Amino acid sequence: MLEKTANYILETVAPIFNRQGYVGTSLSDLTKATQLTKGALYGNFKNKDELALRAFELNTKRVLKPLNEMVDKEDNYLDKVLAVIQYYRTYSQRTKEIGGCPFLNVSIDAKNNYPALFLRAKSLEKRKQEALSRIIEEGIKREEINADIDPDSFAKNMYSLIVGAYFMTFIQEDESYLKVALDQLESDMMPKLRV
After folding, report:
1. What is the b/e burial string over 160-183, where b = at least 16 CB atoms within 10 angstroms of the residue's CB?
2. d(CA 72, CA 192)
3. 99 φ, ψ (degrees, to nearest 5)
4. Which residues are CB-contacts of 36 (< 8 A; sequence separation ≥ 6)?
5. What is the pTM of this model?
6. What is the CATH number of the domain that holds 38?
7. How many domains is the chain partitioned into structurally?
């Protein structure tokens, strides 16, 4: 019963934390949304910090699962890199339901307000970048990707372009920023990966 209640709480509050941020989300927001008492919330979670951290983890799982599925279904490592680009073509729509990109939202909100949450977001972003670097490394080993490519530099450059473009898309409320960046990745950067 406790696990079912904890899951219900997380499912309910995760989008609220993502939309309103850690500081902007009050206990009354959480009790109102869940229709549970403060005691019920804290009977399942130690405090607001734990609840926010677990909500962030749920939000990131929701957005990373389809990315991982798209990448995993490809056999060729060049196609795996292309799958990352294709995933981000619909990223705004994918994250709209939960209030936007959890990585961007948490990074901005938590950096000065909840360092443990910020460090978790930083760590997960780094892991995404490292996963892309490993894909490129494996593609080089299998001779599917150009051996002259530095996997770490390429992954940093690619994710910097994507995240920056998503930030501009979010700020300007204009999908063209992300589209232009992803088109550039496909037309300018992807050919450099080809053997």
Report:
1. ebbbebbebbbeeeeeebbeebbe
2. 22
3. 95, 20
4. 5, 9
5. 0.91
6. 1.10.357.10
7. 1
CA distance 40 to 45: 9
Handedness of CA 80, 81, 84, 89 (dihedral sign): negative
Query: Rg of the chain's alpha carbons, rounded to an integer?
Result: 19
Which segments of 73-150 does DSSP mark as H helices, in order?
77-89, 91-96, 102-110, 115-141
Give, as one character, the DSSP assignment of residue 26: -
Question: 6 is written with which tokens?
Answer: 């904890």
* Confidence (pLDDT) at 141: 98
- Average pLDDT over the chain reads 95
Residue 1 pLDDT: 53
| Residues in CB range of 179: below 8 A, 6 or more apart | 89
**Could you give the CA distance from residue 131 to residue 102 in angstroms, rounded to a whole number?**
19
Residue-range definition of the domain harbouring residue 71: 2-193
CB neighbours of residue 188 within 10 Å: 10
pLDDT tens digits for range 93-147 = 999 989 999 999 999 899 998 999 999 999 999 999 999 999 999 999 999 999 9
Q: Are 49 and 79 in contact (CB under 8 A)?
A: no
